[in-house]
Amino acid sequence: MNPGDRVRVDRADRTYEGVLLPSSTDDHLVVKLEGGYNVGIDSEAADVDVLEEDVYEIDGDGAEEETGSEVEFDEDLPTISLISTGGTIASTVDYRTGAVTAQFDAEDVLRAVPDLAGRANYRGRVVANILSENMEPPLWQDLARAVAEEIEAGADGVVVMHGTDTMQYSASALSFMLETPVPIVFTGSQRSADRPSSDNVMNAVSAVEAAKSDCAEVLVCMHGSESDDICALHRGTRIRKNHTSRRDAFETVGAEPLGTVDYDTEEVSFRREYHERDETDLEIADELASDVELLKFTPGMDPAFLDVVEGSDGLVIEGTGLGHVHTDLIPRIKELIEDGMTVVMTSQCLEGRVCDRVYDTGRDLLEAGVVEAGDTLPGTAKVKLMWALENSEHVEEAMGTSLAGEIQERSVPWE
């Protein structure tokens, strides 16, 4: 049997039929099933019958010549830099474990998404090759520097391929670290390329179209509905991943997305004002205070939890409602502030802003020195505090001021 043959594989009490694909190990067979999914099967435990030879022509090792990833330069097209950090959009299946792992670099994505051809000239760059749960602040700094270098080298837009689980943190980080004259668009996929419902092609194509637009901000481009019709463009500081697996998992909190990309017509449109292309010069401020924590208050929380963060540079609290914690926690919070820690209050509510002047608990928190963060999302507030502690002379003022669209003028849903 050879890759490209249609086979029937019996293993234990299961039978699989499909096309045999190349495998990176002799220990496992890889079969593409009729429904489009790939499955890895232990070779030693399987009985294989070849049903039809050479159904598909497949290279023996699945590799391409070095020139296979080259894209001819067209002087009439804009130049888009593709920066890979890993994640599902740049992943494959490890048939040893059956898990999705980050494998591809930016050039592999160009080969995997041929629909990108003819839309732009591309430059590929790898900053990291990790699943996004392994993202860390030093990598945000590496990413910001890489994006800045690409812009300095003449890129007309940048697309950052990133895992979805922590994309909102990375997008927030770059929103604060970079003043950009061109679009910076984060994208990813909820479902890997071997799945028939994968969203990687549509998201990548739409992100490139957004990177060619006039909106010079940090954006996140992901499916805007359950169908393959439209991608939403979210401000990097206002997004939240609200579903574990749906393709339209991301939402702009407190408003509709800033814009959309129509997948069929390729039209990019915006519903609110934005920073326009070349409106500002490129600036980078990439220093971060690494010792900042985010703590969610829950009823019955032991005040001793605050001892864990003692000595940290900053603390963001996800309080209840308008920004509250149990009264018994306030004396300890006051001690931390008196010892030099900046403590910022956000809300666990999905929409609305903190206002600690309404109830006694809030007034006590303000008197203790807690800083209100308006309707800044808790994760965004953590990233912002990390940035502000290193780059702002007046941290408290910065946390209450919208620097990158993180604080809305008023919290009116779906405006």
TrEMBL record:
Active site: 88, 164, 165, 241
Pfam assignment, any one: GatD_N
Protein name: Glutamyl-tRNA(Gln) amidotransferase subunit D
One Gene Ontology term from the biological process aspect of the record: translation
Keywords carried by this UniProt record: ATP-binding, Ligase, Nucleotide-binding, Protein biosynthesis, Transferase
UniProt xrefs under CDD domains: GatD
Family, as annotated: Belongs to the asparaginase 1 family. GatD subfamily.
EC number: 6.3.5.-
A Gene Ontology molecular function term of the record: asparaginase activity
Superkingdom of origin organism: Archaea
Annotated ranges, domain L-asparaginase N-terminal: 80-272
Domain (Asparaginase/glutaminase C-terminal) ranges: 291-397
Subunit field text: Heterodimer of GatD and GatE.
Class of enzymatic activity (EC top level): ligase
Domain named GatD N-terminal: residues: 1-51
Xref: HAMAP family: GatD
Function: Allows the formation of correctly charged Gln-tRNA(Gln) through the transamidation of misacylated Glu-tRNA(Gln) in organisms which lack glutaminyl-tRNA synthetase. The reaction takes place in the presence of glutamine and ATP through an activated gamma-phospho-Glu-tRNA(Gln). The GatDE system is specific for glutamate and does not act on aspartate.
Highest classification ranks of the organism: Archaea, Methanobacteriati, Methanobacteriota, Stenosarchaea group, Halobacteria
Catalytic activity annotation: L-glutamyl-tRNA(Gln) + L-glutamine + ATP + H2O = L-glutaminyl-tRNA(Gln) + L-glutamate + ADP + phosphate + H(+)
